[in-house]
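Ticket #4471: complex job returned nothing on first submit. Input attached below:
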Amino acid sequence: DTGVSQNPRHKITKRGQNVTFRCDPISEHNRLYWYRQTLGQGPEFLTYFQNEAQLEKSRLLSDRFSAERPKGSFSTLEIQRTEQGDSAMYLCASSWTLGTGNSEQFFGPGTRLTVL
Amino acid sequence: SQQGEEDPQALSIQEGENATMNCSYKTSINNLQWYRQNSGRGLVHLILIRSNEREKHSGRLRVTLDTSKKSSSLLITASRAADTASYFCATDNNYGQNFVFGPGTRLSVLP
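Support reply: We reran it on our side without changes. The output follows.
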Protein backbone atom coordinates (compact mmCIF):
# COMPACT_ATOMS: atom_id res chain seq x y z
CA ASP A 1 0.00 0.00 0.00
CA THR A 2 1.59 3.26 -1.10
CA GLY A 3 -0.96 5.61 0.49
CA VAL A 4 -0.77 7.66 3.66
CA SER A 5 -0.99 5.54 6.79
CA GLN A 6 -1.78 6.55 10.33
CA ASN A 7 -1.37 4.69 13.58
CA PRO A 8 -3.15 3.94 15.74
CA ARG A 9 -6.56 4.10 14.07
CA HIS A 10 -8.30 4.49 17.42
CA LYS A 11 -7.06 5.71 20.77
CA ILE A 12 -9.00 5.89 24.00
CA THR A 13 -7.29 7.65 26.86
CA LYS A 14 -8.08 9.21 30.18
CA ARG A 15 -8.02 12.92 30.73
CA GLY A 16 -4.54 14.12 31.66
CA GLN A 17 -2.67 11.37 29.82
CA ASN A 18 -0.29 12.00 26.94
CA VAL A 19 -0.90 10.47 23.53
CA THR A 20 1.22 10.23 20.40
CA PHE A 21 0.05 9.58 16.85
CA ARG A 22 2.16 8.60 13.89
CA CYS A 23 1.74 9.42 10.22
CA ASP A 24 3.64 7.83 7.36
CA PRO A 25 3.20 9.92 4.20
CA ILE A 26 3.61 8.87 0.62
CA SER A 27 7.34 8.38 0.37
CA GLU A 28 8.23 10.97 -2.26
CA HIS A 29 6.04 13.71 -0.80
CA ASN A 30 7.80 16.70 0.68
CA ARG A 31 4.86 18.22 2.55
CA LEU A 32 3.01 16.71 5.47
CA TYR A 33 -0.07 18.21 7.10
CA TRP A 34 -1.98 17.58 10.32
CA TYR A 35 -5.66 18.39 10.72
CA ARG A 36 -8.29 17.87 13.39
CA GLN A 37 -11.88 17.09 12.51
CA THR A 38 -14.92 16.94 14.77
CA LEU A 39 -18.26 15.44 13.85
CA GLY A 40 -20.12 17.37 11.20
CA GLN A 41 -17.29 19.83 10.61
CA GLY A 42 -14.57 20.23 8.06
CA PRO A 43 -10.95 19.51 8.90
CA GLU A 44 -9.19 22.22 10.88
CA PHE A 45 -5.62 22.87 9.90
CA LEU A 46 -3.13 22.34 12.72
CA THR A 47 0.34 22.42 11.21
CA TYR A 48 2.42 21.46 8.22
CA PHE A 49 5.99 20.49 7.38
CA GLN A 50 8.04 20.99 4.27
CA ASN A 51 10.56 18.18 4.54
CA GLU A 52 11.68 18.35 8.19
CA ALA A 53 10.90 22.04 8.71
CA GLN A 54 7.66 22.97 10.45
CA LEU A 55 6.56 25.99 8.43
CA GLU A 56 3.20 26.93 9.85
CA LYS A 57 1.23 26.30 13.02
CA SER A 58 -2.38 27.19 13.61
CA ARG A 59 -3.45 29.24 16.60
CA LEU A 60 -5.53 26.15 17.42
CA LEU A 61 -2.30 24.33 18.23
CA SER A 62 -1.90 25.03 21.93
CA ASP A 63 1.36 24.42 23.73
CA ARG A 64 0.05 20.98 24.72
CA PHE A 65 0.38 19.94 21.08
CA SER A 66 3.72 19.25 19.45
CA ALA A 67 4.55 17.79 16.08
CA GLU A 68 7.80 16.55 14.63
CA ARG A 69 9.09 15.25 11.35
CA PRO A 70 12.68 14.54 12.24
CA LYS A 71 13.99 13.06 9.01
CA GLY A 72 11.50 14.55 6.62
CA SER A 73 9.66 11.24 6.36
CA PHE A 74 7.18 10.12 9.03
CA SER A 75 5.70 12.55 11.52
CA THR A 76 4.41 12.32 15.07
CA LEU A 77 1.78 14.45 16.77
CA GLU A 78 1.85 14.44 20.56
CA ILE A 79 -0.86 15.81 22.82
CA GLN A 80 0.15 16.29 26.43
CA ARG A 81 -2.27 16.41 29.35
CA THR A 82 -5.24 15.51 27.16
CA GLU A 83 -8.59 17.19 27.74
CA GLN A 84 -12.05 15.99 26.75
CA GLY A 85 -12.15 18.75 24.16
CA ASP A 86 -9.27 17.07 22.36
CA SER A 87 -11.58 14.21 21.34
CA ALA A 88 -11.66 14.29 17.55
CA MET A 89 -10.40 12.63 14.41
CA TYR A 90 -6.79 13.57 13.69
CA LEU A 91 -6.02 13.50 9.99
CA CYS A 92 -2.68 13.48 8.27
CA ALA A 93 -2.13 14.37 4.63
CA SER A 94 0.86 14.64 2.34
CA SER A 95 1.60 16.27 -0.98
CA TRP A 96 4.37 16.97 -3.44
CA THR A 97 4.48 20.73 -3.71
CA LEU A 98 7.03 23.05 -5.24
CA GLY A 99 7.12 26.74 -4.37
CA THR A 100 4.27 28.50 -2.67
CA GLY A 101 0.68 27.39 -2.85
CA ASN A 102 -0.85 24.03 -2.16
CA SER A 103 -1.40 21.09 -4.45
CA GLU A 104 -3.46 17.92 -4.19
CA GLN A 105 -3.26 16.46 -0.72
CA PHE A 106 -3.53 12.74 -0.06
CA PHE A 107 -5.19 11.94 3.23
CA GLY A 108 -4.73 9.06 5.59
CA PRO A 109 -7.65 7.29 7.28
CA GLY A 110 -7.20 9.26 10.49
CA THR A 111 -6.73 8.48 14.16
CA ARG A 112 -9.87 8.77 16.24
CA LEU A 113 -9.07 10.02 19.74
CA THR A 114 -11.52 9.66 22.60
CA VAL A 115 -10.62 11.32 25.88
CA LEU A 116 -12.65 10.02 28.82
CA SER B 1 -11.08 33.96 9.69
CA GLN B 2 -13.06 31.25 7.97
CA GLN B 3 -12.23 30.90 4.33
CA GLY B 4 -14.46 28.36 2.62
CA GLU B 5 -18.14 28.13 3.46
CA GLU B 6 -20.19 25.57 1.55
CA ASP B 7 -23.82 25.98 0.67
CA PRO B 8 -26.17 24.21 1.13
CA GLN B 9 -25.25 22.40 4.32
CA ALA B 10 -27.21 19.37 3.18
CA LEU B 11 -28.63 18.28 -0.16
CA SER B 12 -30.80 15.30 -1.01
CA ILE B 13 -31.46 14.32 -4.63
CA GLN B 14 -32.58 11.34 -6.68
CA GLU B 15 -30.12 9.19 -8.59
CA GLY B 16 -29.55 10.59 -12.06
CA GLU B 17 -30.16 14.20 -11.06
CA ASN B 18 -27.45 16.84 -10.97
CA ALA B 19 -26.10 18.20 -7.69
CA THR B 20 -24.69 21.68 -7.28
CA MET B 21 -22.76 22.86 -4.26
CA ASN B 22 -21.38 26.31 -3.69
CA CYS B 23 -18.40 27.61 -1.79
CA SER B 24 -17.75 31.19 -0.73
CA TYR B 25 -14.55 32.55 0.72
CA LYS B 26 -13.38 35.83 2.16
CA THR B 27 -9.83 36.66 1.11
CA SER B 28 -7.73 36.39 -2.03
CA ILE B 29 -6.70 32.85 -2.79
CA ASN B 30 -3.93 31.01 -4.55
CA ASN B 31 -6.11 28.08 -5.49
CA LEU B 32 -9.30 26.32 -4.42
CA GLN B 33 -9.73 22.60 -4.03
CA TRP B 34 -12.73 20.31 -3.63
CA TYR B 35 -12.59 17.12 -1.58
CA ARG B 36 -15.03 14.30 -0.89
CA GLN B 37 -15.33 12.39 2.37
CA ASN B 38 -17.36 9.25 2.76
CA SER B 39 -18.73 8.63 6.22
CA GLY B 40 -15.94 7.82 8.69
CA ARG B 41 -13.26 7.79 6.00
CA GLY B 42 -10.40 10.03 4.93
CA LEU B 43 -10.77 12.79 2.37
CA VAL B 44 -10.27 12.24 -1.32
CA HIS B 45 -9.12 15.03 -3.61
CA LEU B 46 -11.51 15.77 -6.45
CA ILE B 47 -10.25 18.80 -8.30
CA LEU B 48 -7.99 21.85 -7.93
CA ILE B 49 -8.71 25.13 -9.67
CA ARG B 50 -6.18 27.95 -9.69
CA SER B 51 -7.08 31.57 -9.13
CA ASN B 52 -6.46 32.39 -12.81
CA GLU B 53 -8.78 29.61 -14.03
CA ARG B 54 -12.53 29.93 -14.40
CA GLU B 55 -13.69 26.37 -15.06
CA LYS B 56 -12.36 22.82 -14.85
CA HIS B 57 -13.84 19.46 -15.67
CA SER B 58 -13.07 15.99 -14.43
CA GLY B 59 -15.38 13.20 -15.52
CA ARG B 60 -18.83 14.02 -14.16
CA LEU B 61 -17.49 16.93 -12.14
CA ARG B 62 -17.45 20.55 -13.20
CA VAL B 63 -15.96 23.27 -11.04
CA THR B 64 -16.26 26.98 -11.63
CA LEU B 65 -14.44 29.81 -9.91
CA ASP B 66 -15.48 33.46 -9.79
CA THR B 67 -12.77 35.41 -8.01
CA SER B 68 -14.73 38.66 -8.29
CA LYS B 69 -17.51 37.12 -6.20
CA LYS B 70 -15.11 35.00 -4.16
CA SER B 71 -17.13 31.89 -4.90
CA SER B 72 -16.87 28.49 -6.50
CA SER B 73 -19.36 25.83 -7.45
CA LEU B 74 -19.10 22.08 -7.82
CA LEU B 75 -21.53 20.38 -10.18
CA ILE B 76 -21.92 16.61 -10.16
CA THR B 77 -23.86 15.43 -13.17
CA ALA B 78 -25.91 12.23 -13.43
CA SER B 79 -25.45 11.51 -9.73
CA ARG B 80 -25.14 7.98 -8.38
CA ALA B 81 -25.81 6.52 -4.96
CA ALA B 82 -22.03 6.17 -4.57
CA ASP B 83 -21.74 9.97 -4.71
CA THR B 84 -23.34 10.12 -1.26
CA ALA B 85 -20.71 11.83 0.86
CA SER B 86 -19.68 15.15 2.36
CA TYR B 87 -18.04 17.61 0.01
CA PHE B 88 -15.61 20.25 1.19
CA CYS B 89 -13.95 23.18 -0.46
CA ALA B 90 -10.53 24.26 0.75
CA THR B 91 -8.59 27.42 0.04
CA ASP B 92 -5.21 28.88 0.75
CA ASN B 93 -4.10 32.48 0.64
CA ASN B 94 -1.71 34.06 -1.81
CA TYR B 95 1.27 32.80 0.17
CA GLY B 96 0.05 29.21 0.07
CA GLN B 97 -0.63 29.32 3.76
CA ASN B 98 -3.61 29.11 6.00
CA PHE B 99 -5.13 26.13 4.23
CA VAL B 100 -8.76 26.19 5.38
CA PHE B 101 -11.65 23.82 4.81
CA GLY B 102 -15.28 24.83 4.97
CA PRO B 103 -17.89 22.92 7.04
CA GLY B 104 -18.98 20.89 4.02
CA THR B 105 -22.12 19.96 2.12
CA ARG B 106 -23.63 16.59 2.97
CA LEU B 107 -24.99 15.08 -0.21
CA SER B 108 -27.42 12.19 -0.17
CA VAL B 109 -28.24 10.52 -3.48
CA LEU B 110 -31.31 8.35 -3.18
CA PRO B 111 -31.67 5.29 -5.42
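The longest strand of chain A covers residues 88-95. Closing as resolved unless it happens again.
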